[in-house]
Amino acid sequence: MANQLYSTTDWKKLHCEDIQAMKTRLGCLSNKSDSCSDFSEFLPPAQERSTRYLKLSTDEVTRWADSFDALLFNKYGLAAFRTFLKTEFSDENIEFWLACEDYKKIKSPAKMMSKANKIYKEFIDVHAPREVNIDHRTREETKQRLLEPTPNSLNEVQAKVYSLMEKDSYPRFISFPMCRGITGLSNNCLERAKRLKACVGGFLQRQDLSSLCKYRKPRLTLEECLMWKESFEKLLSSKHGLYAFRAFLVSEFSEENIAFYLACEDYKSTKSTSKMPSKAKRIYEEFIGGEAPREVNIDYETRDITQANLKSPTASCFDMAQYRIYILMEKDCYPRFLRSAAYRNLVNQLTLKSARQEAKSRKAIASRPPLEDEEPK
């Protein structure tokens, strides 16, 4: 749960397990130069699947980039995507979607009622241990439908979670270095494996926010850090919070979202109308255009409207696109940030620091000599 605080020992154990699991899955890349099509490092541990050694054709893996459905309805693609989401602390989305698929196959009304209650308690209820990110209206309407469950009772909430994965998690999966490397058809597999291993090595070391406690001034306090949980707006309005969130998105290979949002904020503050056209063009080419090097994930309608706005740029010409990206970050990236090991570690460090300072203050008060008009304790 996002609000749960871990002890330093617990966090270290969790963090080491996360890192070790990643290394186990990714370390194979540097040793499998004999097969460009081997994708088994993405799959669950051996004890959780058959002992058959899995091989994939490069064409099969490449087809995963055709559409989200092409990925989900390929058993190896689904296994790879599930593993990827675990590294992002968001596997509850795909697990919920799969649970809904199983639910729709149930014929017995009694079993349907039992399964519906189980899914609701695990994924939808506000106190669910693996709560998916849906709005209040959808949650309440789903709760009412499940009083008399039918095969379609979960369709609306399943569609929302599907859309969230399709628009955000799926593009990140396709652009993830391992996936890019495997679909890249490099002639030299060993060289590619080395490059991928270097990328992954950076990934394993990026989620360290401890510098916020030590080097940035004014120093971050526990109160400010905990305030980030209250809303996405409070996170972004905090200088330290924005720094931490950007570092987290870098570790997820999706920093283009916050970079675009901040570029839009900077654009709106432009005073000179003569500078607006060149600035707007630069933002469009970097983040929105079809060949944009840091393309953000927005729908065609929003892209077309934004492109049309650039013919006569005003301070509001990126508002629609910026709003789409803000909502995407608020609904998906922000909850993952709060659940991340990096944020939990930061809270733990600040909690320990605050406790030490409080103990030091109490000790200083207890050891000082009493004032002249003060009774000795």
From TrEMBL:
Q: Which SMART domains match?
A: RGS (SM00315)
Q: Which keywords does this Swiss-Prot/TrEMBL entry list?
A: Signal transduction inhibitor
Write down the SUPFAM superfamilies for this protein, in alphabetical order: Regulator of G-protein signaling, RGS
From which domain of life does this come? Eukaryota
| Positions of the RGS domain | 67-174, 231-347
Quote the PROSITE patterns the UniProt record gives: RGS (PS50132)
Q: Where is this region: Disordered?
A: 355-377
GO terms for biological process? negative regulation of signal transduction
Which InterPro entries does the UniProt record give? RGS, RGS_sf, RGS_subdom1/3, RGS_subdomain_2
Q: Which residues form the signal peptide?
A: none
Q: What is this protein's record name?
A: RGS domain-containing protein
Q: What is the protein's species of origin?
A: Cirrhinus molitorella (mud carp)
